[in-house]
Each structure stands twice: as structure tokens, then as C-alpha cells.
Design goal:
Elements lengths: L11 H4 L12 H8 L2 H28 L11 H21 L3 H25 L1 E3 L2 E4 L9 H17 L10 H17 L4 H18 L3 H21 L1 H11 L3 H5 L1 H13 L25 H31 L6 H25 L17 H17 L20
Length: 409
Amino acid sequence: MSETVPQEAVPEARRRGQPQLGRASKTRAGMWFWEVDRVLLTLAMLLIAIGLVAVAAASPATARRYSDATHIMPAMHYFWRQLVWVCVSVPVLITVSMLPVTLARRLALIGAGVFLVCLALVPIIGHEVNGAKRWIGPEFAAFQPSEFLKPLFIVSTAWMLSFRAKDPQLPVLFITGGLTALVGVLLMLQPDFGQTIVFGSVWLILLMISGISPAAIAGLGGTAVAGVVAAYIFYGTARTRIDNFLFPTKDAALAERYQVEMAHDTLTSGGLLGRGPGNGIMKFKLPEGHTDYIFSVIGEEFGLIACAVIVTLYLAIVIRVLMKLLDEDDAFRLLAAAGLAAQFGVQSLINMAVNTGIAPSKGMTLPFISYGGSSMIALAIGYGLLLAFTRRNPYLKRSPYTGRWSTNA
């Protein structure tokens, strides 16, 4: 005989017919809650929260720099704008992470085509900011196509390379290489040498993961070196950046190298524990302290220990993704997730290398921490795709009578 369950023992949400997030929930939100990697999600939210604090610290200095006699910007101008971008980006991240893998892949392919066209239009109708033409669209809604293209292009490249698992003879290496070269040329026209390095690095990483031969890897490595040499010889922006970094003259130290040296001085001026929130001094001399050099502002106000914590968070994301992919048997999900994690790691590494003075200035934002609408929303899309491709049903393999199912549908 079954016992009658007391009415007060029934959850309030169930009595009212409201959706639940329990294991038995069949709603999209309920299934997402149990399938998504909550560790990866938490790490992203921590970085976004740190970014808001960092932008709040950098905002007064940037507001003063861009104020003049006719227009004085409020000290927290950039913080409030960044808060708006965060309020837009977090729902975007969650929504994209809920997409089925097949739909996410299709939307990424379409989006990659759209933003590739936008990237091609930048040299023609783009807006010039700080000597580079990287923005497109009306002034009130201008965006950087390269930021949005990054995650979508990576997913598209992963999709093409995944066909090698079925037929290694398919010429996907040459197709993806040609598309990556096209993107690189369009980026160099802006010019944007840093983004070119990110696209090229992630493509090489995807090729290695897809299982190309050691001889092909060596050949690509030689091609990459030749490409850097060619850029130095024929591409004035790259030659200037490299010369001023490796062989600085007095004029270069006052111009190109000034930002890198000032970033290093700002980063180290706070010591281990920092000067304290709002007590930074060097940040008022640092150009673009709210975007490219926000890592240095964090070092000055919160100390090198805080910087080490941020490095640990980025490293934890990459390691977490790689650990989850150890038993992945779907070639596309493996390549797409690994490529998105690689983009996240490479971009973070470049930004921090510039801030510490071991790499020339490249105009690269620090993911989820630097100020910027295009950067925040594009990163939210990329990280949402990463969460979508790493979602797992924890009960799918519980039965010993079931095989390994594909969750691509």
C-alpha cells in the first residue's frame, strides 16, 4: 500500500505548476541547467564581475583624458556604459549556450559569411579610430566585424576540418588555409596585426588537433615564419612595431614604445597588494587604460596577486575545456570547443604579454575584462557557443545497455 504524501511536503513550485530546475524538469531551461558546465559558466561570470571592477577603476583616468574645455566627461562614464554592455552580453551568452549543436553550427556558418562580408567592407566604408579603420556602421551603432567574426569563423573552420575524420583526402586544409589567409589580408588592410595573429594561431592549433602529419605541421611552421618575415619586409605597420620594440630609438621610445613602457610601469607600481581601489596614480598617464591596458590598471590598484588570480582564471577555463574533451568522440564538437578555448587563451595571452612589456602593442582587449561593446557581445557569443558544444547529459551513459549517443541533433 502506498503512503499518501502530505500536501505540505509537495514543493510550492510544483503545486502552482511553475517550471522547476530539478533533475525531472523537461523544460529547455531545466535541461540546460543540468547539461551545461557550471564550472565554466561560473568562471566566465567571475571574469565579467572582475571586469566591471576594473573598468570602474580605469574610468576616471580615461574620462579625464578624453575631456576638454567644452566637454567634461563624468568620472564613471565608461563604467556605466560597460554595465549596459554586460546586461546585454550575459543574456546573449546564456541564450547561445542553450542552442542545440546543429542549430548553433548552422547559425555560426551563416554569421561567419555575413561578418566576412562586413570585414571586406571595412577598408571602403569603415570609420578610422586612433589611426586604424576597424569599425563599420552608423556612429551610434558602430561595431568591429573582426570581433564577431572570430568565434563564428573558428566554428566554421572546425566544421570543415571535421570532415577529415570521414575522409582524410578531402582538401579541407587548403580551403581553410585560403579562407584564413583571406581574413588575414583583410585585417592587415585595417591594419590589425594582432587579430591576424589570433586567427592564424587558432587555425594552426585546429590543424594540429585534427591530426595532420608532422611533416605538414613543420611545413606550416616554416610558412608562418616566412609570413612574419614577409610582413616585416612589405607591411609597414608590422615593420614599425617590430623595430620600435626590438630596436627602440629615442623617438620610438617617445611614440610607439611609450605605451608598452608606461603599461609595464603602471602594472608594477602597485606591488603585490596594490595601491587600493581608486588610489592609482600611473593610470592617469596610461593611454587606453580601460581597454588594451586594463591589466596594468588592475596591477596598480589591486596588486600583482590580483593579476595572478586573473591569469589562473583564464588558465582554468582552457584546462577545463581540454579535460572535458578527452573523451569526446564527435570530431566537430572536439574541434569547435578546442578552437574557441584556444581563441580565448591566445587573446588573453597576447594582451597580458603586451601589458608586461614582453610583446609589442597590438590593440588587443582582455576577454570579459576590457571595456567595449563589440568585444563583450562577441565574447559572449563565442563563450556561449563553447558552453553549447561542451554541454553533456549526465544521465545519458548511466545505463550499461546504451551505447554512446550523438547529441548533435
